[in-house]
UniProtKB/TrEMBL annotation, chain A:
Belongs to the binding-protein-dependent transport system permease family. CysTW subfamily. It comes from the Bacteria. It is found in: Cell inner membrane; Cell membrane. Keywords: Cell inner membrane, Cell membrane, Membrane, Phosphate transport, Transmembrane, Transmembrane helix, Transport. The keyword Acetylation does not apply. It is a multi-pass membrane protein. This is Phosphate transport system permease protein. The chain crosses the membrane at residues 30-55, 75-106, 118-142, 148-167, 174-192, 287-310. The keyword Cell membrane applies. It comes from Jiella mangrovi. Part of the binding-protein-dependent transport system for phosphate; probably responsible for the translocation of the substrate across the membrane. SUPFAM superfamilies: MetI-like.
UniProtKB/TrEMBL annotation, chain B:
The keyword Oxidoreductase does not apply. It comes from Jiella mangrovi. NCBIfam families: 3a0107s02c. Gene3D superfamilies: MetI-like. This is Phosphate transport system permease protein PstA. It is a multi-pass membrane protein. Residues 67-270 form the ABC transmembrane type-1 domain. The lineage of its organism: Bacteria, Pseudomonadati, Pseudomonadota, Alphaproteobacteria, Hyphomicrobiales. It holds the Pfam family BPD_transp_1. InterPro entries: MetI-like, MetI-like_sf, Phosphate_PstA, Phosphate_transprt_permease. The chain crosses the membrane at residues 21-39, 67-92, 104-129, 135-153, 185-205, 250-273. Belongs to the binding-protein-dependent transport system permease family. CysTW subfamily. Its main location: membrane.
Length: 323, 280
């Protein structure tokens, strides 16, 4: 298959467009592909250069300092890092089971004529821009959290000794929990559509054999299908995690932008991306701006690692499916 | 024995109902979001939205400057991102299909596809805003085009790979050079797929806010000048929604409705194109 293509690396000089034109086109396409590489390297270098003054001033202490004080010019990344991780964790705890549930529903329970429309509707949810989730979160969801959900949580979960400190304090409406829930709504469709896609790659022989053994629908999904596509599921989930970690606008509206590490997940906090979005244009040049870019650099490194791992796992799955 | 089977059946019923509930929850969220958008957005959704510029607090006005700014940046970003993306996708699918470098670029492209857009904003800030000394529509355009490229690269490569190798071989066998084969044969059979990629990337960038925050910034006045801060729909929504003024908040909702309609129509159109191709 590849022989003819590789053998004719630059074709024959005849007809319209000869070897030269082909060489030029080859070079141009290569240049365009190299731009992709250059962008990544450019992002890395430019962020590192911008972050350098802050990283040099604060050293490794930058990552373990909670204080974020533009007046005394003391900056630390711990509070935004904490907020980013906690909101993403809340989002994943909810979105993974719900997303998998939707995928199983779409491949198993859903009546056939409804599969396509429901699948499309769920994917439309993924297409809604994050600023829409933000404005909706601020004006509709946060008041709902403040008046209904949070008082209920405070009076029930907040009263349990041992974990009560997590659900403590006045109901602000905005905060870490609200942000985590909005993030969950945003990533559920990603998880659901990746999971549905990989479920469909499971050979029907496996499924039929399992049913033939007398397994119930749930048992087939839990013990046969999910284990069969495990690595792709983990990959898809990490892809969603990458999105949650870097999501900006939806979180910026509802996080509260408070640079501290609250013990309660009902309290306002901040995330890396929300801190950058909220403060960057107002930041004075110098160490303040540099600290924000340093936050961006940290976010870039974290998401790059997560997304790379996700890609590797999805690739493994593709290879397996290709065999 | 009997009770064990009963328990398994019970677990099955419970779990399968839970999956149905998960789907219902997803649809419910979609319905609530779209419902609120429509109710809150429609009240100030009229002609003045398109004919008047962003007003001061408690004054009548529209979103004309923001809409024009967004259209300008989106169009120019596509004009930059599309050729780069199609050419890079061509390299990955044709000339460099088997090279080691291609697999690295492919990998990086997939990472860039889901990289946080605010990082792109910071990069362009460092690249263009700091060096040129001011915020500008051009900077916003470059930021958006960086988001376009990975989407176009991925869809182009995928669709070019669907073109059967026999077509390539037939072209080469009659003595046509490779680039003519690509231009005349491969591109024309892959056109629908590339158009889908264009629609998808338009849908993606028309709602992007984070990369514009500190590149194009914003502008309260109507402007064609890309070399100065330029208003855009997402940034205007962001600023107006967080303001304390009723009329600004109402405009933010109207803008949000406008963007959502645009994005959803683009995604649905892209989907229709793909299904038509699959059926054919």
């Amino acid at each position: 298959m590849s022989l003819a293509i590789e053998g004719n690396r630059h074709g024959r000089a005849s007809g319209s467009g000869g070897i030269d034109a082909d060489r030029i086109f080859h070079g141009v396409t290569f240049g365009a592909a190299a731009i992709v590489l250059a962008v990544l390297i450019g992002v890395f270098i430019s962020l590192l250069v911008g972050a350098w003054p802050a990283l040099r001033t604060f050293g490794l202490g930058f990552f373990v300092t909670e204080s974020w004080n533009p007046v005394t010019e003391k900056f630390g990344a711990l509070a935004p890092l904490y907020g980013t991780l906690v909101t993403s964790l809340i989002a994943m705890l909810i979105a993974v089971p719900v997303g998998l549930g939707i995928a199983i529903f779409l491949t198993e329970t859903c009546p056939r004529p409804l599969r396509r429309p429901i699948g499309i509707a769920i994917e439309l949810l993924a297409g809604i821009p994050s600023i829409i989730y933000g404005i909706w979160g601020l004006f509709v969801f946060a008041p709902f959290m403040q008046t209904v959900v949070q008082p209920a949580i405070i009076s029930t979960l907040g009263a349990i000794p041992g974990i009560g400190f997590l659900f403590f304090g006045p109901p602000y409406g905005i905060g870490l929990l609200t942000s985590g829930l909005i993030l969950a709504m945003m990533i559920v469709p990603f998880i659901a559509s990746t999971a549905r896609e990989v479920f469909l790659t499971v050979p029907s022989v496996l499924r039929e054999a399992a049913f033939g053994m007398g397994m119930t629908r749930w048992e087939v999904n839990r013990s046969i299908i999910i284990p069969y596509v495990r690595s792709a599921l983990v990959g898809g989930t990490m892809l969603a995690l990458g999105r949650a970690l870097g999501e900006t606008m939806a979180v910026t509206f509802v996080i509260g932008n408070a640079h501290r590490i609250p013990s309660s997940i009902l309290s306002p906090g901040t995330t890396i991306s929300a801190a950058i979005a909220n403060e960057f244009t107002e930041a004075t040049a110098g160490i303040y701006t540099s600290s924000l870019i340093a936050l961006g650099f940290v976010l870039f490194v974290i998401t790059f690692a997560v997304l790379s791992a996700a890609q590797l796992m999805l690739r493994q799955m593709k290879k397996k499916a290709g065999e | 024995m009997e009770s064990k089977l009963a328990r398994r059946k019970l677990v099955n019923t419970v779990m399968m109902s839970l999956t149905t509930m998960a789907a219902a929850l997803g649809l419910l969220v979609l319905a609530i979001i779209l419902g609120y958008l429509f109710i809150r957005g429609i009240s100030s959704f009229d002609l003045s939205l398109f004919t008047q510029d962003t007003p001061g607090p408690q004054e009548p006005g529209g979103l004309r400057n923001a809409i024009v700014g967004s259209l300008m940046m989106t169009a120019l970003a596509m004009a930059i991102g599309l050729p780069v993306g199609v050419l890079a996708g061509t390299y990955l699918a044709e000339y460099g299909r088997f090279s080691k470098l291609s697999s690295i670029i492919r990998f990086i492209n997939d990472v860039l596809l889901s990289a946080p857009s605010i990082i792109v904003g910071l990069f362009v800030y460092q690249l263009l805003v700091v060096t040129l000394g001011h915020f500008s529509g051009y900077a916003g355009t470059v930021a958006l085009s960086i988001l376009v490229v990975p989407i176009i690269v991925r869809t182009t490569e995928d669709v070019l790979r669907l073109v059967p190798d026999q077509l390539r071989e037939a072209g080469l066998a009659v003595g046509v050079s490779r680039w003519m084969v690509i231009r005349k044969v491969i591109y024309s059979s892959a056109r629908a797929g590339i158009i889908t990629g264009i629609l998808l990337s338009l849908a993606r960038i028309s709602g992007e806010t984070a990369p514009l925050l500190f590149t194009s910034l914003s502008n309260n006045f109507f402007s064609w000048n890309l070399n100065a801060p330029l208003a855009s729909l997402p940034i205007t929504i962001f600023q107006f929604a967080l303001s304390p003024y009723d009329n600004w908040q109402a405009l933010a909702w109207a803008g949000a409705l406008l963007i959502t309609i645009a994005v959803l129509s683009l995604s649905i159109l892209a989907r229709l194109l793909t299904t038509k191709k699959e059926r054919a």
